[in-house]
Amino acid sequence: MQPTHATIPQPQKIYLADYTPPAYLVRHVELTFRLAPKATRVIARIQFAPNPAAHSRDFFLHGEKLKLIRASIDGTPVQPVLVDGGLTASVPDAPFVWESEVEIAPIENTALDGLYMSNGMYCTQCEPEGFRRITYYPDRPDVMAPFDVRIESDLPILLSNGNPVERGAGYAVWHDPWPKPSYLFALVAGDLVAERGAFTTMSGKDVSLAVWTRAADADKASFALGALQRSMLWDEQAYGREYDLDVFNIVAVSDFNSGAMENKGLNIFNTAAVLASPATATDMDFQRVEGVIAHEYFHNWTGNRITCRDWFQLSLKEGLTVFRDQQFTGDLHGHAVKRIRDVIKLHTRQFREDGGPLAHNVRPESFVEISNFYTGTIYEKGAEVIRMLHRLVGPVAYGEALDLYFDRLDGQAATIEDWLQVFQDATGRDLTQFKRWYQQAGTPQVSVVKEYADGILRLTLRQHTPPTPGQPDKLPLVIPVAIGLLDSEGREILATQVLEFNQPEQCFTFSGFDDAPIVSLLRGFSAPVILRQENTSEELALLLAHDTDSFNRWDAGQQLARRTLAAMVIDNAPPSSTYLNAMQAMLMNEALDPALRALILSLPSEEDTAQNLALAGQIPDPDAIHAAHEALKNHLAEHLEAVLPGVYAAMQVDAPYSPEADQAGKRALANATLALISRTDHGQAAEAQYAKADNMTLTLGALASLLSIGRGNSQLAAFATHWADDKLVIDKWFALQVTEAAPRRLLNMLNRLTALDTFDWQNPNRFRSVLATISANPAGFHQADGSVYRFVADWLIRLDSVNPWTASRISAAFDGWRRYDTGRQALMRAQIERIAKAPGISREMSEMVGRMLA
Ligand code: PHE
Ligand code: ZN
Q: Beta strand 81-83 with 4-5: parallel, antiparallel or unpaired?
């Protein structure tokens, strides 16, 4: 057939305010896939019905990169009008059946969006808008339908969403009874093996579980299976949520743009987020695998059963699901350490985003490409907003609100308004002001003035949110400030209370003291704000030594370190002895969890120091920052020289490897102390650890220590040979060399690494292991001649032509360009502009660079 071609201009931006309900709803979807690498046929039979709530009767189906073979309505062939991004047709004003057959070429799909191939296996990624690359469909999350899928292929394992119905020679049939949006569709076909398990739900239903991998990875799947079982149990116990299908499948794929995807009943995972064995994965990898398994599993209720009305509501599922996975990990392994790690991530990733040209609301109001909004703000700040809500209403009311949320909105595509309404109805609390957390970008700054006289402590809090793109003026937010008080001996005299700080300026008084109390503010990081308080170093040392709130102990140590680093950078000052002594006392405190000691001993990142200096009105000098960090580490190493070996020795684990928190904490402290020891023993202890390590945590810790002092070449070579067949381990080998390279040698290193045969740049994990890791070496990235900027831009342009998602994500490396000196600004700007003007640049990338330049 000869379809007619017409072009309607694509709107540049999509606005939340323009939302209209779909013209037609889908009652049922039936898909048949005849798989072939170059010419897969997809036959879709879709039952449509007019939507009584619609504003129009315009029939539009999304479709991209599809070759239309035929189409019919109620069995009668039709010739739809192909337009940009899809097709239109005239259809009856009554229920009808649409049928289409299209051809696609999964082997040519390098964007890894839609149906694609990875090492001979077919797999899909549909969120947010990949389904339109599979067939013509109303590819929007508020259109939900049950799916029946038939897969035809000679490959041995054929999987789709829902429950298996039939398996025969060369085909399999799946049925998913739960209405779902197209972004949750999934299909996998390949030569895979299963790690199998089972779970009996709270109402006694048996569920078969499987984690599917290539045969070579079969020994790395059992941890993920256990993590899935723990997640299923936790969601029943903590949220009363039961699983709702007969099977749950997880598939590991080595070419994947993101971490993992929560497709209904068939989660698809980046191998990096699912495979783990002691020899190949670090303790942090184990924890990440468990966290991501939990996250994707929890989406079954928060994301799948209740989904998003439109992509502006993305944080409705992501913020909530991140909060849930954080609770889960905290419950299983301890809340203090988990909270600190999450806040470190928030500080480096989200605060930076929120303070630069890419700042956006937790619920954006417009976008060009939704794929650019899978960000720290949507995920991590979104989770912080829910954590604040949890704190404000308390755990019991939170539980009641969530029950109401599931009761009221199950099976629906919901909004942030629906979510907040549930809390208003369940708790009677007016959330009008609280809603601003979703509507206002930027990290609020909170300053504190403390006055003490006659037994009365007066705290004056002021809040201010700096302007962000498109939002010059900000309104005051509701900020829960958890506070406790200590006396001058470090004894707690006021247990944690939550202040509701909701005015531009607000005063809180506490009375009945004999002496000025020490204030422990923002305990547990009770709000995602930048706290500016004028503590003395002595007060911080006291909090570090005695606060009952572990988070604030860590934070006091970080504040001391920040202060000392700032003074070293700005005034060339020697490191503060208060800091060095406090570190020594902390390190020797055997009552303190080793994991916590490791975190306290670790300096804030160089990125953190840059942010901190920028906040203080300084232009951060990446070389000076790096030099100060190095100098402080050397000072620490010397100051602690006498005690480090004893702590290191006490952290050795004799028992067989387990990724559990007690062992992992010891290894974390062993590695943290080893890094300092290496600065004075020329790498002797690190070489010994490398030689006898039988797990990846200790191996990599030793290697990092060696590389950081300019040694370890023979170990690096041996490592590469030993692990040549394991892609995930070789990713670590690439990344470590980038992180640990001396800044001046970074460009050489990058050129050398990217010239290797093993630098398979079209594989997102491998690309990221080099290109995304550069931002972990800021002094290297910001080489004053701009050479690394150019290197990054070259690779982004190259990757963008095959994989816009991964390329545009990494382009955010340039988002801090305005913070730096005019020379670096000009150099970075030139590279961002060069990307913007590169021929054929994707919409994703052009939106990113456009926002960075605006
Ligand atoms: N929805 C996934 C998650 O956070 C993330 C994802 C987005 C994966 C887009 C792939 C593509 O759980
Ligand atoms: Zn998610």
A: parallel
